[in-house]
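Try it yourself: sequence plus iron/sulfur cluster, in.
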Amino acid sequence: MIDFTLIFRILVFPGFTFILLLTLFCDWMERKIEARLQNRVGPMVAGPGGILQPLADFIKLLTKEDITPREAKKTVFKFAPLVAFTIMVFAFCFIPVDGASVLSVNGFSGDLIVILAFATIANFLLFLAGWASCNPYGTIGSARVLTQFLGYDIPLFLIALTPAFIAGSLSIATIASSQVIPFILLAPWAFVLFIITMQAELEKDPFDVPHAESELVGGLETEYTGAKLAFLHLTRDVQVVFGSALVVELFLGGPYGPVFFGASWFWYTLWFVLKLLVVVTITEYITCVFARFRIDQVLSGNWRILLPAALLSLMLTVALVTWVYPLVV
Amino acid sequence: MTDIKTWARVKSPWVLHFNSGACNGCDIEIVALLTPKYDVERFGVKLEPSPRHADVLLVTGCVTQQCAERLKSIYDQMPQPKFVVAIGACACSGGVFEGNYNVVGGVDKVIPVTAYIPGCPPRPEAMLDGVVKLLNALNPPKAKKQPKPAKEPEVAKPEVVVAHAAQPVVEEVKPIAKQ
Ligand code: SF4
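Structure, out:
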């Protein structure tokens, strides 16, 4: 007996199709916000308000000629973007969207660690993608990706542990459902630190040194064309949505919110998407108002400021969880 | 299927800008095209850093002998389908530099050109018009429904109209074989 509910959940909602549509929508949102902040209007010809612009870009890239340079390491060059995309989507499947995640109803204890590891692996595959293209700009770009994410993964993990400590669990579903008071109110400093670290992890301004156009042409994407480029772009966009979803789950109370009438999964999805859009807006705002750091500033900022700050935040949380929060919650 | 393909291509032309020996006048006008006032991202136009990502190559300036090789290799690096727009009198024919000892001539001496936008330098509006005509040539109007002409908001209109200023006209857009 085939379980059609599971297949539906994986392929349509809240699985693959939902993630893809959400990603394209967030991409459009980002471009619109960026345009508005720069006093422009942004895409507006493709579809109403330009909402189909990311889709048009994606389809166009899929239909373009696919070039593999003679010097490139063919296998890695061809498959790294696709595998990175797959891993990101798989990681997203662990995030409870409508009150439950795609794969299982409650996840399992420790899935927070698993999805953070998946995000790291996807980043590593992006590095491989750039490295395999054997283009000077591509290799410099991917070397920067590597230095940056190796550094920022440590604070990211440490800060992601803050909500886990407060909730007393490493399972995302439990963390999300135990937020009667959203953790952003209990640990606002961790939220701020997490947003900053995520900005670096997602390689957005002011940390976008790995694909600084003025220095590196296209960074690790320089040699990519056609479908492979489409999947590289898509991987980046899924990463953005995934990071924002993580913030929602860890600090903003996950998909939970008031249910007014009808099915709870509808309201949960609605709350989830709304919170997600708020986070995307915040990160995009940061992207627009900051200029780019140099790579050495990015790295010393990580090791000198963010890492100690993350450790301090962790210590503070442990102290608060032991002595203060029992009085509040 | 072909319809979707054409739609996507028309809605998302990514451009690469190459200066093959211009006096920088045309380049400044191209940069003006990307500023908030004209904002070509409305049409899905994005300035791409790498020729591998681009659909349209915007060439400014006459082709000098040194640049001819580079222009050719940049053109070869672009994935099919690709289009070339020659911007400025120099790119169209060599302009004021025609006949110079180190100048090959217009861009079409080196690579096939799809659209010519004359002017010295052409106004951003003329470039927009040229790009829109190029896109419409890609998407031949159906019998009944004309493709929507690109909307130009009020701000895009020239504010100061100098008397006798020759209005730049896009002269011709060569019909392109549909891909
Ligand atoms: S057309 Fe005029 S502005 Fe453009 S490159 Fe030539 S001389 Fe300069």
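One thing you can check immediately is this: Chain A has 14 helices and no strands.
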